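worker-3 :: picked ABC-2 type transport system permease protein
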Amino acid sequence: MDNLIKAEWFKLRKDRSLWTLIIILTAVSLLYPLLIVFDDGADTVKVIDFYRNSILGGNNYVLRLVPCILAGFFISSEYAIGTMKSIAASGNSRIRIYFAKLIVYSIGAIFISLIFPIVFTGAASVFLHFNGMPGIGYFAGTIGLTILYAVAFASIMAMFATIFTDSGKAIGFMLIFFILFDSILFLLSQLNPILEAVFNYSVFKLFLDIVNVDTVNGAEMIKLVVVPVVTFIAFGILGSVLFQKKEIK
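worker-3 :: tokens ->
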């Protein structure tokens, strides 16, 4: 397992799609605060307000959509070019192969998910003269939960990337799925109490509550932490089962 993770980590570090996405998100994080300064002035906006509304709000889309592109190139493309066939024939069990790739891919998703909260916040703080900085507890709490939800969404993306053997199809399907699924699930939850419970305990719903981590009670905090962990485990197992039964050509 250790050698598999090292091999996947080497491939992730050399993955051009990951570095392209990181560079683009970093550039946006460094340049966008300038628009706020020019539009509203550096002394009229507090960093905490900008962090809550713009950074965490924008990261909702980054975390759910951008790793889909990485999944298509890092996972799905390996079926098309024959890499996955070679790995499956290496003598390692498919469960170990899948979880090694899932773990390393999740690390890539974490890198992507933290660019806005860290780089964007740092740049905004400088441009806004550190006016109204968020408390360290609130910042650390949102960062920790962002990591958990990045891993949870990564497990879902990895499963879809395993189903599709073409990176273009995988990316296209996942982008549409993650754009529309939470809205569709919300509409269905209004019609059925069971679906309402599913929606209320889904990562799609709870991820939006990260911004309010400073006001939630103990029970709600436990739910915010446990749900993404359970999601990662459940979809990790489901993905490994699908990978075991998948015919690799």
